[in-house]
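INFO batch 0412 | record 1 of 1 | parsing
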Amino acid sequence: MKLFSPTLLVILILSCGSLYSQKPTYDSLVTAGINQIYSIKFAEAEKTFQLLKKEYPEHPASRFFFAMIDWWRIILSEENEEQDDLFYEKIDETVNFCDEILDNDPNNVDALFFKGGAIGFRGRLNVMRESWFSAADDGREALPLVEHAYELDPTNVDVKLGFGIYNYLAAVIPEKYPIVKPVMIFFPSGDKELGLEQLKEAAATGKYSKYEARYILLTFLYYFENDMQTAEMYAQQLYNSFPNNPVFERWRGRIAARQKDVALTDSIFKNVLSKADKNFEGYNTPMIRREANYYLGFNLKNSGELNSALQYFKKCIEEGKKIEEEGEESGFRINATLYAGTIFQTWGNKTEAKKYYNKVLEMRDFRGSHQSAESYLASMK
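INFO prediction complete | emitting tokens
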């Protein structure tokens, strides 16, 4: 998946479905279901939203959240497209249900938000699958719905998540990726500082959006702001709330690795592999094992424990092969292959070293991997 694309700039705004309390049982069911999704307890979440649908059959929330369960199944294993069709079906069901409401009440805030959110998530999957024209169409269709809903209720803190994402990315992405600047003439201009302020407000006081706001904030702080201290704070908050969410736990590990905290990085990714071995929900996948083995191998290589490092790199490579297509190899697998070559070269085993370097050259170039492999090969002549 390409994390930040031109179409995602608009689509990410729609990640937050705004929910409105109707009575305590509604709030309690929605809150419980959201927590179950983030806790990767999908069977429990399905039961909760079935009850929500029974108690509130005229409300679009249950239909939307059934789709969000499938969305998280996709997120946990992005390379697997088997869930896509079912997700699209549930999104269409949500949109159609909202349309029925809006036909009779064009200013129904819940229907506007859930329709916009559903289309936005459909667009996010289209981005993930690199269906760019479909994603662009989804963005153009969803944005006016969200804007209309905001006009109807500008006091809702949860909506700050969507607008914060938009304001930040609309300001940052064109500078980071000038190729998208022509596209941005069709959309409102952004404001980076305002976007961060809105996201922090949602993260602090959002009723239903706080977890998503914290997650988005830590990714922005990691990728764009290089503010590891604040990113770590949000990652820790998410982990404290959902200690068995592999996405949040791996982000703690990535941030620790960026901070060069070797002990913490090792502790986190060893825990990830332990949960994978115990078949914790969402952990025992090639994608998870690939990343964890890479970071553990990388730290061992840097500490001079080459035998152990090589074993982790080989496991990373094997897990990557299970899910990666030719020309789409992950950075983890490419680097693991390159580092395995350097280990064999250090040991004086030129035959094995050359084998791994040539494998690097057969894969896509990743951050100068081809140049590095060619340089190492030349040094052995």
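INFO post-check: The mean pLDDT is 88.
INFO record closed
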